[in-house]
User: Which sequence fits this backbone?
């Protein structure tokens, strides 16, 4: 799994994901290492995790959650032990965002 733009103010992640996809597609029939990777590994590329923030651009998603501070332990609805500020942001919003929850599955 590779996810690109988590914060709307950091657009390079989406560009990198697009470059990786392009490399895999254009080199599949040319490079044996790429062919092996594509044929034997389940790859997930998500260029833009925070579409609302990417469009704005701003760090928050459409629900005013900073996704980088919203990763919770699976099923807990709580932020992982990543510092008091990050914990407070997750808890202030009440739960793990839909974007973060979807990636944790």
Assistant:
């Amino acid at each position: 799994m590779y996810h690109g733009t988590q914060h709307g103010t950091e657009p390079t992640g989406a560009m990198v994901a697009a470059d990786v996809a392009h490399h895999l597609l254009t080199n599949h029939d040319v490079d044996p290492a790429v062919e092996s990777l594509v044929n034997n590994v389940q790859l997930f590329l998500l260029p833009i995790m925070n579409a609302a923030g990417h469009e704005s651009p701003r760090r928050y998603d459409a629900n005013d959650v900073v996704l980088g501070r919203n990763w919770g332990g699976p099923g807990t609805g709580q932020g992982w032990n990543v510092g008091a500020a990050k914990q407070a942001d997750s808890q202030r919003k009440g739960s793990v965002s839909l974007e973060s929850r979807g990636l944790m599955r």
Observations:
- Residues 31 and 77 are 43 Å apart (CA to CA).
- The first helix runs from residue 12 to 27.
- Confidence is low (pLDDT under 50) at residues 79-85.
